[in-house]
Structure formats: structure tokens, C-alpha cells
Amino acid sequence: MLSAHPLLLLLTPALATAYVYQPLPAITPIPLPSDSCQSYPGYIPSPPGFAPSLQFIVTSAEDPGAEGLYASSHVFNYQSGWSDEHLIMDLRKSRAFAKEAYRCHGGNVSTTYRQDGKSLSISRDNRNAYLTFNGGGWPLELYAHEEDGKRVEGVFLGSANQTTWGFYYERPTEDCQTLDYYQVKLLGLPLDESADMRAAADPEFRGFLRVVRFD
Q1: pLDDT at position 131
Q2: Has residue 9 been placed in a domain?
Q3: Residue 162 CA: distances (Å) to CA of 21, 113, 190
Q4: Which of 112, 174, 180, 182 sees the fewest Cβ atoms within 10 Å?
Q5: Structural domains in the chain (count)
């Protein structure tokens, strides 16, 4: 559950630092055409239409330290034999170092290197609504944001009129993973009773995902 207290205390062996979360902007999401690529930055109208070299970044995060982090895909293999590939937020901020680029082609969004035809959607488990390559999810949609009646710069990822994403930190573990990162999932989606529901971690803070060109 998100804390009602905006002030958190981060402890280190030698120092205790007061850390203040910033409020999430009160925005209104405005749906943009998402059945083609025309709303993506750098759209090229040549049939069937595409937008090359895109990246997804954290914006307006309640935790200012997460501002500007980039999305990368990661494959998760579970002891049950089930696997999942979805996007996480890389803790390294250099946009050129080990960052994936994405593209929209004919209305479908994938990584620039993929040859398997899989595209991004949003998991139907509304407690774990990740950006996934597993298929069958909520459609990936684009939105504009308005705040106090004024358009906010940029276009943002979401679905079903929801554009607020929840983030929580995953530590490295000896038996499972060697990197640390933020998990990211879309908040506010309706319950889909047909979805395979799994255990879920509560978000530690919220923010938005903006689509930018990777030039």
C-alpha cells in the first residue's frame, strides 16, 4: 500500500537522510489514436506506417531519484517452469548504455531487434499489469496529459484510460538475478476474472511513462 506519509527516512551505516516524495501531478488522460503509429514521436507515414527508435522513460515520479530512468526488457524464469518477458526500469541513467530501443510498426510496438513477431501489451492480471511480450494482454495505448486544463508536453503509455504506473525496487539475489531494478506496472485497470492472478507487491511510488525518440 502506498504510504500516506510523504516523508521517508533512508538509513545508511553513517548517515540518516530525510527524503521527501513529491506529489504526483493531478492529470487528465486524453486518448490518442493507438491503432496505428501516427501518435508516436518520429512517425513516418510510409505504409503501413512506423516510428523507429523509441524509448520509454519515467516522468513526474513521486520519487525524484527515479526521474528519467529507461525501460529495458528482462526474461523471468520461475521454478514452476513458467517464464515471462516484460519491461523493467533500468537503474542506470545513461540513455546509450545497455538501453533498448523500441519501434512501432503497423500499430504494434516491439524492440528493434526482435524477429519473433511478438509485440508489447499489458498483462491482464490487474495486480501485475506489466508491459509484457507474452501476448493476450490489454492493448498498449498512447495518451496526452492535461493538467489544470493545459496540455502537458509529451505522449504517455497506458491502457483503458489509465496512465499511472506503480514502481517497486527489486534487489539482486544469489539464486535468481544479478541486477537490481524497478518493477513497473500499470495501476487502476479493472479486474479480468479470466486472467491468471499471481501474488503482487505493492508499489512504493507512482509516476508516468513517457515515449521519447532515441536519436
Answers
A1: 94
A2: no
A3: 22, 29, 10
A4: 174
A5: 1
Which pLDDT score is estimated for 10? Answer: 28
Beta-carbon contacts of residue 208 (< 8 Å; ≥ 6 apart)? 27, 58, 59, 60, 61, 145, 156, 163, 164, 165
C-alpha cell recorded at residue 123:
498483462
Say if 87 falls within a structural domain.
yes
Spatial distance between the Cα atoms of 37 and 127, rounded to a whole number of angstroms = 28
Query: Which phi and psi (to 5°) does residue 65 adopt?
Result: -65, -20
Cα–Cα dist 196/124, whole Å: 8
What pTM, to 2 d.p., does this model score?
A: 0.83
The pLDDT score that the predictor gives to residue 174 is: 55
Q: Which of 156, 172, 170, 160 is nearest to 207 (CA)?
A: 156
b/e sequence 86-111, b meaning 16+ C-beta within 10 Å: bbbbbeeeeeeeebbebbbeebbbbb
User: Rounded to the nearest 5°, which phi and psi values hold at 64?
Assistant: -60, -25
The C-alpha atoms of residue 165 and residue 158 are separated, in whole angstroms, by 8
Domain containing residue 61: 27-213
* Assigned C-alpha cell, 173: 539475489
Query: Which of 100, 138, 6 has its CA nearest to residue 62?
Result: 6
Q: Which residue has the cell 537490481?
A: 180
Look at residue 29 in the predicted model and tell me its pLDDT. 98
In this prediction, residue 100 carries a pLDDT of 80
The per-residue pLDDT for 7 is 29
Instruction: Look at residue 20 and tell me if it is in a domain.
Output: no
User: Is 75 within a domain?
Assistant: yes
